[in-house]
Amino acid sequence: MNKKIRTQNVDQLFEAVLKLKNKEECYTFFEDICTPNELLSLSQRFDVGIRLLNGQTYQEICASNGASTATISRVNRLLSDDNEGIEMAAERIRKS
What we know:
Elements: H1 8-19, H2 23-33, H3 36-53, H4 58-65, H5 69-80, H6 85-95
Helix pairs in contact: 3-5
């Protein structure tokens, strides 16, 4: 984990996210703190991660969500570096 991001401000942000109760509250909150492009970029990276975990190729991912090969490569590198956040969240979504 990147120790540089472990700050009081990030902790406060995460606490706020954990207090949200449903998707509508998430939309309301994230629309206030992110630009539309920032939110779409985050969601695209998460989608890329799920697709990579499901074994899709770069070409399939590019065709399905428009992600650049640079974005796919960046997410793939994160998955390869034993970062477990995307995989953990994807697994919890599958179970719900």
